[in-house]
Amino acid sequence: MTEVLASFGQRVRKRLGIRLGRLSQFAPQPLARYQQVRVGHTVLPDLPDSGLPTPSVSGHDWPSFIIVTPSYNQAQFIGRTIASVLNQNYPRLEYIVQDGQSNDGTQAVLDGLSGQGVTVRIEADAGQADAINRGFMGTEGEIMAYLNSDDLLLPGTLEMVAHYFDNHPEVDAIYGDRLIIDETDSVIGHWRLPYHDGWAMRTVYYVPQETLFWRRRAWKKVDESFNSDLHFAMDWDFLLRLQQKGMQIRHVPRFLGAFRVHAAQKTIANIAHGRQEMQYLRHRHSSLSCLFIAQFRHVWLLVRHVWQEMSDPL
Fold first, then answer.
1. Whether the Cβ atoms of residue 62 and residue 168 lie closer than 8 Å to each other
2. What does 194-225 look like in DSSP terms, one character per residue?
3. Sign of the C-alpha dihedral, residues 259, 120, 101, 74?
4. Which is nearest to 278 in space by CA: 175, 198, 206?
5. What residues contact 221, with CB distance under 8 A and at least 6 apart?
6. In whole angstroms, what is the distance from residue 81 CA to residue 56 CA?
7. How would you class 79 by CB atoms within 10 Å of its CB: exposed for 0-12, middle for 13-18, buried for 19 or more?
8. What are phi and psi of 173, to 5 degrees?
9. pLDDT in tens, the chain (314 residues)
10. What is the Cα–Cα distance from 35 to 37, expressed in whole angstroms?
11. Alpha helical stretches, state H, 112-187
């Protein structure tokens, strides 16, 4: 019954033009097609998609980044993930791969990257959230993020994020828009969000994790940890906790990362468990009256999303 309802929901979303929540949307397209800046209707080549001006942060003002990649048995993709981070050529970047003792050939990939700008830690962990927490231990970067071992950062992302935080000191966390890619790095969909709605986020989670960045001060507000009891929705819980602490969260209208869809990924393999965690978070962080309001805000967000897709198609 769950599979039937999910299939029906996907058909409804497709009919209404709702891309959010849909992973496969069209025939594979070259990733390079989306690596461009769009300012109004003007297209400039060779940069990620954006409605924002090109970043320019002076050399002595670069904020430092710490990015952690939790890793387990993704030998097929992790090399591309690491390359997408190192190829940012960002001057103040600490990058840690926290591997949970993979046994699929990941070790050989990581050995080949030793001394090339990435620190590899291999140790047993209690799951993804625990691996992320372990990766961040002992680090000092001002801007923080984690990138799963099958996803990608798009070119220019770190410079753009640095620029945004530099110009918006009041903002504690940001996220952007998502490309969806297949096993060969071809684009099969995208999510563009119209804005951040804290109310809607109480009942549904559309934030593309691979585009999420936050300040060190926000990390300290939530006890410097993701909830290691969660194995699917730890990033949603993290943002809800930030929101409860009064942290400012913003959406940036730019493609910052790519989420990979493949048969072995955790998102697909554990979807039933994921739904249980999401239901738990809805009731943990909101009362029934709040959830009622949140549902209306969710509908309005989808209306704005569809209008955006119709008025500004890619």
1. no
2. S---TTGGGT-----GGG-EEEHHHHHHTTT-
3. positive
4. 206
5. 242, 245, 247
6. 25
7. middle
8. -150, 145
9. 444 444 555 787 888 899 999 999 999 999 988 765 333 323 323 333 433 444 455 555 889 999 999 999 999 999 999 999 999 999 999 999 999 999 999 999 999 887 789 999 999 999 999 999 999 999 999 999 999 999 999 999 999 999 999 999 999 999 999 999 999 999 999 999 999 999 999 999 999 999 999 999 999 999 999 999 999 999 999 999 999 999 999 999 999 999 999 987 655 545 666 788 888 888 787 777 788 889 999 999 999 999 999 998 88
10. 7
11. 128-136, 157-167
The C-alpha atoms of residue 241 and residue 122 are separated, in whole angstroms, by 29
Instruction: Please give the structure tokens belonging to residue 290.
Output: 């709040």
Token pair listed for 196: 């951040």
> Which pTM value belongs to this model?
0.90
Tokens representing residue 175 in the block: 């996220």
